[in-house]
Amino acid sequence: MTEIITAAAARRTALAAQGFADARPTGAPSRRHLQRVLSRVQLLQLDSVNVAVRAHYMPVFSRLGPYDPALVDDAAWSSSARRPRLLVEYWAHEASLIPVADWPLLRWRMRRYEHRYVHHLRALAERSPGLLDDVLATVKDLGPVGAGALETALGGPRAPKAAGGWWNRSDVKHACEWLFAVGELTTGTRRGFQRLYDLPERVLPPEVYNAPPVDDDEAARQLTLRAAVAHGVGTEKDLRDYYRLEPARSQRAVAELVEEGLLDAVTVAGWRHPAYRHVDARTPRKVACRALLCPFDPLIWERDRTERIFDFRYRIEIYVPEPKRTYGYYVFPFLLDGDLVARVDLKADRAAGVLRVRGAFAESGVDTARVVAELGAELRTMASWLELDGVHVGERGDLAGALGAAV
């Protein structure tokens, strides 16, 4: 018979797994603290939206408090004998920073991309014969190098961008992205948020780049185990989603991990589907924390799980026309102890030097006075971290008036 655990215990287990039961550092966070966060979350999602702060920086702040973003930059995009690279870019949940050692576990995805986009590759080869070889040779000579500089080195874009939006790319950019997807290029570094391509053998340590092939099922097993570490407890679908695994392979991996004693099958009261708890997962008696969570924080990026665990329906409204938005453009849920108690629509207005709260909304049944006090303090901390002078609260939302007075 499987163990039955309460929904509240499952919530505390999930929060502990994601690092929210760990005390924030009392001094300046160090590389060691960053490594602790990475050991919890396993990966950091990348996203181009920069209305408040880049997505890969915010989860570290949510767990550590104010830290030097150079900690993440150095871990992801530089390397030395004393401070080797910790992270490398690839498609994991989405575009992500993953531990360098995990790169071989995603070679199966590189092979899938080769087959999935072969018709695009043929069309590219017909339009621009020899382009892939030319790009690789030029990156070898010039890398790390951006797509624009590659186009210049290759004599200009092989095909001009079409009108109609930023997603229309030249053939050179398409070639770079395809080579990145199949593992023949990676990100050597970034300038701003521009990806500068390089050869993986110059970015990855030899023992990782030359690692023997990992069987697809074994890769899925190891990735599922990492997902279980990050979840603490979750359904098979929860674990599958963390690295976007195929259902059949994920189901087989979960069954094997249960048989090996690395996952415990449990029943969570109120959950419709069976759950699985990592054998080393902690369930603290309480979780005392506060944190603003960006839309791409791994605690909440699977929206059905967020609703199931926190009774909190959350959707990102970036692509919703402004008049139809419920809460705002880029909304941060606010975690206080074990609950998501409020949400704020944030924008870092660097020209004015303020963190703008364009909307502030309380969840039903919360202690509004305490939420306002804790949220106001965390917003001031975030503004200071972003080197902004203060917080400005707009008029939208039932928390706006009290929060504006508090900050």
3D architecture notes:
The protein is of the alpha+beta class and 407 residues long. Helices cover 40% and strands 18% of the residues. It contains 17 helices and 14 strands. The strands form four sheets. It has a five-stranded mixed β-sheet. The protein has a four-stranded mixed β-sheet with strand order 1-8-9-7. α12 packs across α14, α13 packs across α14 and α16 crosses α17. The longest helix is centred in the last third of the chain and has 18 residues. The chain is globular. The N and C termini lie far apart (52 Å). About 2% of the residues have low confidence.
Give me a quick take on this structure.
With 407 residues, the chain is an alpha+beta fold. The protein has helices at residues 7-17, 31-41, 58-64, 70-77, 107-116, 118-127, 131-142, 147-153, 171-181, 200-203, 206-209, 216-231, 236-242, 247-259, 303-310, 368-385, 400-406; strands at 3-5, 44-45, 87-91, 95-99, 186-191, 194-198, 233-235, 263-268, 275-278, 290-292, 331-336, 339-349, 354-362, 390-396. The chain has 17 helices and 14 strands.
